[in-house]
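Discussion board: Methods & Data

I've been asked by a reviewer to show the raw model output for two of the constructs in my manuscript, not just the figures. I'm not sure how much to include, so I'm pasting the format here to get opinions. Each protein appears as its amino acid sequence followed by a line of discrete structure tokens. Is this the kind of thing reviewers expect to see in a supplement, or should I convert it first? Here is construct A:
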Amino acid sequence: MRKLVLWAWRTVSTPAGTLSLGFLTLGGFVGGVMFWGAFNTALELTNTETFCISCHEMRENVYQELTRTIHFSNRSGVRATCPDCHVPHNWTDKIARKMQASKEVWGKIFGTINTRPKFLEHRLELAQHEWARLKANDSLECRNCHSSVAMDLQKQT
């Protein structure tokens, strides 16, 4: 095993004597494009409602409540999904939010909210985090769909 590790290290750390700089550059470019494509694919797969409700904590708690709201079912047929409200649309903001969401993965692993009573115990704290995030970005995710210019305030209660 030690010989294999030493051989691998020597191979990686020794300058290429047989490969041209052009080949290495092209290989690096192709590898970068493949990495970027895989990264974006993973990012988009984790940006779906199916992914969000794949754990029973969300499916059995928040999602059940969402199905009874105007954001889920309304006369226009437009439906907001979890990422529409909880994931920023701009790429840099989206990455920052995904990094924050890694704390939620930690909670999943250690069962912080894996039952209804535990969820209810932490619900206010979780909501306060979301409210603070929305206040900090001036409800940007809401404004992606809701435009005050397009609203007919006379028809609203």
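Construct B, same format:
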Amino acid sequence: MSTTVAVAGARGRLGSLVCEVVEEHPDFELVARLNRASDPEDGAAARILVDVSHPDASPGIVDRALGRGQRVIVGTSGWSADRLEQLRERVAATPGAGAIVVPNFSLGSVLGTALASMAAPYFDAIEVIEAHHPGKVDSPSGTAVRTAELMAEARGGRPVEAPFAEQPARGQLVAGIPVHSLRLAGVIAKQEVRFGGAGEVLTVTHDTHSNESYRAGIRAALDAAVTAEGLTVGLDRVLGIGA
């Protein structure tokens, strides 16, 4: 029997791709394409709810889905550490609940973040530059936020050298690491993490040239959501990378 899936934000770039992946997967059945005009209870019968909507709408969509006993995959940006902690508490208080939050479905991006986390303890200066298409409403991106948080964790609390961080042009500090956001036509997604050391600079770069790069990650998240319990943050945790 196929696992039924509803997609919130189905008309967007990522939502359209998620719908395609679900329809192509022999073990899943797409039963609802949800958008802003949908009734809050549309798609309530689906076993899995994939939320790729809007940062403002996402928490409410996810909360309703968990309340109905649905498994949830969250691909919407804007889930800060505070939001994730609230979600963790919500999931923990709901027996059998499962939620997977994926800041980026790209396998290359996940590996790039893992490499950056490996390098983070060895350099005192670290900065992140992320670029996305003009339609991306949030900045920094969820991927950049997660990358910065994982690098800070890898450093064990040792602060990054970030001179003049109070100046707006120096970017936004995320876990003590400056993050710079660009929104440009002609760009899908790109992230650079630059590490500065004595006499050298190391750069870890990931470029997304097509939304096709997200297909494998979406499939992996769908497969994991069927049996996942508790809160899982990051495709790296789904794939067992750096876990």
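Answer (T.O., handling editor elsewhere):
This is acceptable in a supplement if you add a one-line summary per construct. For B, something like: The CA atoms of residues 41 and 64 lie 9 Å apart.
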